[in-house]
Amino acid sequence: MDDKNPILDLIARRNAAVARGDAEAIVAPLSEEVVAYTLAPPLAHSGAEARDAKAVEAWLATWHTPPRVELRDPTVLIDGDLAVAFGFAAMRSTTADGEENVMWYRTTTVLRRRDGEWSIVHEHESVPFLMDGSDKAALDLEP
Amino acid sequence: MDDKNPILDLIARRNAAVARGDAEAIVAPLSEEVVAYTLAPPLAHSGAEARDAKAVEAWLATWHTPPRVELRDPTVLIDGDLAVAFGFAAMRSTTADGEENVMWYRTTTVLRRRDGEWSIVHEHESVPFLMDGSDKAALDLEP
Question: Taking CA atoms, what residue in B is nearest to A45?
Answer without folding.
Answer: B143
